[in-house]
Amino acid sequence: MNLTIVFHYVTGLLLAYAYDDLSYNKSTTQSHTYLGTNYVADNAVDRNSTTCMRTLYIGRNSPDKTLWWKVDLGGVYNIYGVNVLFKSYEGWNHRQRGRFAGFFLYVSTTGDIQGSTLCYKDGPLLPPLNFTTACSEYGRYVIFYNERLNDLAYPDGYELTNVFTELCEVIVQRCYGPGMYGSNCDILCPINCKYNTCQIQLGSCFGCNAGWARTTCDTRMNLESWYGDNCHHQCIGHCRYNSTCNHVTGQCERGCAAGWTGTLCDRVCDDGTYGHDCKNNCSGHCMNGSQCNKHTGYCDEGCNPGYIDSDCNRECELGYYGKNCSLACSPNCKTCRHTDGMCSCKAGWRGHNCTTECFRSYGENCQYPCNEHCIDHKCDRFNGKCLCDGKHDSLPSFRKKDATECIFWIVAFSLSLATRIIFISTTFILQR
Q1: Residue 392 and residue 231: Cα distance in Å, rounded?
Q2: Is residue 281 part of a domain?
Q3: What is the separation of C-alpha 320 from the centre of its chain, rounded to a whole number of angstroms?
Q4: End of a domain among 174, 195, 228?
Q5: CA 203, CA 223: separation in Å to the nearest integer?
């Protein structure tokens, strides 16, 4: 009896330490943060379930339609699974599940969703607030992504407005010991797997050491990869994960390597597509219409004006434009086009970049002419008020009669002042 208890205790202890927490206190970022200081991205990896990150809401009542949260594991790892703890509120669990519903989990080596591997796609049922999934991928970044697009129909129960995302904990797991796989992380990866890493559930190698082939790297490469009747046809060699083709059909059972497509993975990606099986579309913003890299999707020759990032998929931030978004928009711009800096001007300004002052006109883009009754047709370029002796008149329209009255009072004041000066001077002379 005592031996049985000890056996179960030891087994439980081994299972508890079978997985390594890769994401604890690692570097994190998120697309946007809810106002305040208590909703930062790091809250999702501090292992305190009472603190949660929080983004601005997305949905049909928000200008924001997408959001993301990302953790940098600090190195490339063989991932086993991901656990996500969503924020719960007493009596509001169904609403919370509807907010999180439809999310994506990606694993990436570069930190970009484009070119990354989809680990999990939620739906159509609502997810539990404590969610765990197997994720046997190889990468450095784990990305949580969700969206609520206006032109897309969503399943029942999905929240479509005020969709806040609150992740309290995101735990990325791998087998505790290097070079292990299996449900209990207790089986050694095949000895010839490259970097001593393998698919964490099945044990197949992501790549082989030099001189070895097949999914478990147990075949010497002096026997080339062949298929078909009497092994008469040689595999093309563009299968994903460097795997060999099916020995009967010649097809790549795990898909094509980046940059290749076709039944036998023998056709280069068409222009405008890239990645595994050419499933990803290029941004379309590469310099001078050049094509993106068919393997990575990057614009190797740079970006058209108005776009940045390696794949040229991100527009310049507000207030900047041009090549590499290196030019600042004029402070007189109300809006500024991110490609060439073309402005819609604030009141009082006009021109391509809003640097020319209005003349005999006023308002945004100087669109309104000054009133015809203003002196010399000149008015305040911001609000259109007529000008009198360099100062604003109280009325927007300064009439000719008003101008005459203004001149009359100026002359009268001048005569009165001169009379006083003569009187005072005469009095002073007589007193002497």
Answers
A1: 94
A2: no
A3: 17
A4: 174
A5: 23
Single pTM value for the model: 0.47
Task: Kindly state the helix (H) or strand (E) to which residue 96 belongs, with its residue range.
Answer: helix 93-100
pLDDT at 401: 47
- The predicted-structure confidence for 66-101, as pLDDT tens digits, reads as follows 999 999 999 988 888 999 999 999 999 999 999 999
Q: How far is CA 261 from CA 72, 239, 271, in A?
A: 31, 9, 12
What the block records as the tokens of 228 is 């078909």
Residue 143 domain flag: yes
Domain boundary at 349, 368, 387, which? 368
Higher pLDDT, 393 or 73: 73
The pLDDT of residue 408: 66
424 within some domain = no
Q: At 31, is the secondary structure helix, strand, or coil?
A: coil
Are the CB atoms for 158 and 147 separated by under 8 Å? Answer: no
Contact status, residue 268 vs residue 278, Cβ threshold 8 Å: no
Our count of domains for the chain comes to 2
Tell me the residue range of the domain where 32 lies.
Answer: 19-174
Looking at residue 175, its amino acid is C
Tokens of 264: 């036998």
Mean pLDDT value across the chain: 85
Instruction: Say how far apart CA 225 and CA 211 lie, in whole Å.
Output: 13
CA distances from 316 to 291, 323, 327, 334 (A): 21, 9, 10, 16
The answer to whether 19 touches 80, Cβ cutoff 8 Å, is yes
Q: 85 has which bridge partners?
A: 130, 169
List of residues 6+ apart from 361 with CB closer than 8 A = 350, 367, 368, 369, 370, 381
In a domain, residue 302? The reply is no
